[in-house]
Amino acid sequence: MLDRDNNGQPEENAGQTPPCCSSLHDGKRDDSESAILPSRASVLAGIWEIVKALTAPSGLEVTLAKVVDLLRSFLQMRHGIISLFDSDGELEITVGAGWTESCGERCRTYLPRKAIDQIVATDTPLATENIAVHSAFTAADMEVLGVSENIPVSFVGVPIRVDANVVGTLTIDHVLDNGSRVWLDYNLCLLPLIANLVGQTVKSHRSFDGDPEQPMAQQLPKQKHPARQRNKIHVEGMIGDSLALRDLLEKVAVVAKAKIAVLLRGESGTGKELVAKAIHELSPRAKRPFIKLNCAALPETVLESELFGHEKGAFTSAFNSRKGRFELADKGTLFLDEIGEISASFQAKLLRVLQEQEFERVGGNQTIKVDVRIIAATNKNLEEAVARNEFRADLYYRISVVPLLVPALRERRSDIPLLAAEFLKNFNGENGRMLTFDPSAIEVLINCDFPGNIRELENCVYRTAVLAAGPSIGRGDFACWQGKCFAEALHKSRFGKIALQSPPIVPLPAVAAIPPAAAAVAVPPEITSQPPLGPAGAVHLNGARMTDAERVIEAMERCGWVQAKAARLLGLTPRQIGYMLRKYGIEIKRL
């Protein structure tokens, strides 16, 4: 029985045509219906186009998005969304009109989840003239759908079935007017027909694993490819279901099985340590030690003792012999974070250990052999460091057998709601709160670039949760909406004035094993014309605009008129900054 405004409706007599279906025939409509409902010819033409779209050779998301677009072409509707669930009941696909892969998460914000759950659980359509008075819609749903006293909204949702199982929903909404009851009755008759066609297509896509460019009739059923199973790899602590993260985890599962060195590349805060731990836990060494060390946190002398250990009396405070990290990681995995920060002299010592798998403790002469797998990580551009003789090329090739690029958070925006929910859950547990996110808050988070990546997102959630006044976090609770986001100000000051760090990490084309995703970030080309000095419209912290010549002079002054240091500060090569000095006639000061 249909759920209409929470009031039961008497069942139609078996021998009668339901009134909702009678309006499909033009000859039985009055003038008010004709103004609201599409003509019979346009409906038949629309259904025919939907059938052609469902049988066309294309991906499932693209196909379903075309269906919504076609419905919108002949039905009066604002939002139309098709949602599909996986075998575990988790939301798998959400598409709307004008869908693209980048806006898939935004479609989810228009989903009234409580209403969707009711449709799936009861396996019956849900229709209401005004969602503001229906118990299946929360205040957050009404805010997302733009409901107000002046803008009431009608809603129709129907289940999508594969055989006897509900696998998804088809929902549309419409601004309430005098003809909304007619609109509801009409779509309660039409949408189940469309949902039935969609269900058949979903069944075909899930039953066949052939070439998507082939017509479905030419595809033969076959066993699912093992690569499909890797999409469900779960690693403790790594949250998300984006394509970028799934691709990374697939590579992790393959790389983990081999005893080879891995170099994790990526920006700070992307979770490189979690990836390193995942490689260890998925490897045959999972029951052996996983030892980690931040190379940037220690001076060279202490770093040597930490890695290789020391004998009693090796130095003033060495009262006892002590094993180093290499010994502790024997038969296991050693994770060296920030490896790009170690000094040139220590690079030579580390190279020997990696090559020979043997070393001596500090102050000792006994050679110790170990069996250690090395996973290194850096957020520096090691290729540029090698070119500047700041990093040994032989060490680079030793640690970069398999480079893996850990995607930045802005490249996996669909994971932001899941990560934010987890951080808020942790905050609630630690502080005895019961805060939730409004859909408007999720939209704010999805649209933020988060240059500090996951670490910055966690800080943002905690900061906002601490200062939130109500039981839920909304758009206005975020510092960025109040003009008080210091992380954003820091990012602008670092990249709006002059580049204070090297460009994003970019593997060299010669290294074949580097993931294809790295190609999305380009290395600044060496050019003979004027090189760019930071982004367009670069500014001082005080807001004054600067010319390229002024930026060069300021960088040179800050670096004591040392061209190599100024070049690094501006993200240029020494040859490029030399060209800029000559072009603008800047005289080098001798200090």
List keywords for this structure.
591 residues, alpha/beta, 6-stranded mixed β-sheet, 5-stranded parallel β-sheet, 23 helices, 40% helix, elongated
N-end to C-end Cα span? 88 Å
Strand content: 5-15%
SS class: alpha/beta
What best-fitting shape do the alpha-carbon axes yield?
elongated
Average pLDDT figure: 76
Largest sheet composition = 6 strands, mixed
Low-confidence sequence ranges: 4-27, 209-231, 494-532, 534-545
How many individual helices? 23
* Strands ordered across the widest β-sheet: 1-4-5-6-2-3
- Rg from Cα: 30 Å
How helix-rich are the residues, as a percent range? Answer: 25-40%
Strand segment tally? 15
Description:
With 591 residues, the chain is an alpha/beta fold. It has 23 helices and 15 strands. The protein is elongated. About 17% of the residues have low confidence.
Any chance you could write out the topology, listing elements then pairs?
Layout (H helix, E strand, L loop, with lengths): L2 E2 L14 H4 L8 H6 L3 H16 L4 H15 L5 E6 L5 E6 L7 H6 L3 H10 L3 E3 L10 H6 L8 E10 L2 E11 L4 H28 L18 H4 L13 H13 L6 E4 L6 H10 L8 E5 L5 H9 L16 H4 L4 E5 L6 H13 L1 E3 L6 E3 L3 E6 L3 H6 L5 H7 L2 E4 L10 H16 L4 E2 L1 H8 L6 H15 L4 E2 L12 H11 L51 H11 L4 H8 L3 H10 L8
Parallel strand pairs: 1-4, 7-12, 7-13, 8-9, 9-12, 14-15
Antiparallel strand pairs: 2-3, 2-6, 4-5, 5-6, 10-11
